């Protein structure tokens, strides 16, 4: 992931809970949102459940710079959360990550 021309970084993460772990993943994400919002450089950090698809989640986050995102990902609490998250999600964390680049019409 790299910073956009405007400097900020937008990340979208899609996650699907393992069968029978839907409520556990929702509770896990809910508990992780507020601490992430308080990390330096965070602009937005919003968790969403996909309507009509229990156990499917999307997290939308924006960071002032790539350095802020990297610091968030390297935080001690994140190193502790990753193994727990892997027990709850179907697939890998990396499979669900997308970087968005904003653009505007020329006019």
Radius of gyration: 14 Å
**What is the total tally of β strands?**
4
What is the tally of helical segments?
Answer: 3
Strand % is 25-35%
Helix coverage percent of residues? Answer: 25-40%
CATH class term of the domain at 9-65 and 89-100:
Alpha Beta
Largest β-sheet summary: 4 strands, antiparallel
Shape: globular
CATH topology of the domain at 9-65 and 89-100: Alpha-Beta Plaits
List unreliable stretches of 5+ residues: none
- Can you give the mean pLDDT? 90
Category by helix and strand content: alpha+beta
Architecture of the domain at 9-65 and 89-100, CATH level 2?
A: 2-Layer Sandwich
**Helix and strand element order:** EHEEHHE
Strand order of the largest sheet: 2-3-1-4
**Termini distance?**
28 Å
Short précis:
By secondary structure, this protein is α+β, with helices and mostly antiparallel strands.
Core attributes:
107 residues; Alpha-Beta Plaits; alpha+beta; 26% strand; 4-stranded antiparallel beta sheet
Descriptive report:
A four-stranded antiparallel β-sheet has the order 2-3-1-4. It contains three helices and four strands; from the N terminus they run E-H-E-E-H-H-E. A hairpin with a 6-residue loop joins strand 2 and strand 3. The protein has helices at residues 22-37, 66-74, 76-88, and strands at 9-16, 42-49, 56-63, 97-100. The chain has a domain at 9-65 and 89-100: Alpha-Beta Plaits, CATH 3.30.70. It is α+β, with helices and mostly antiparallel strands and 107 residues long.
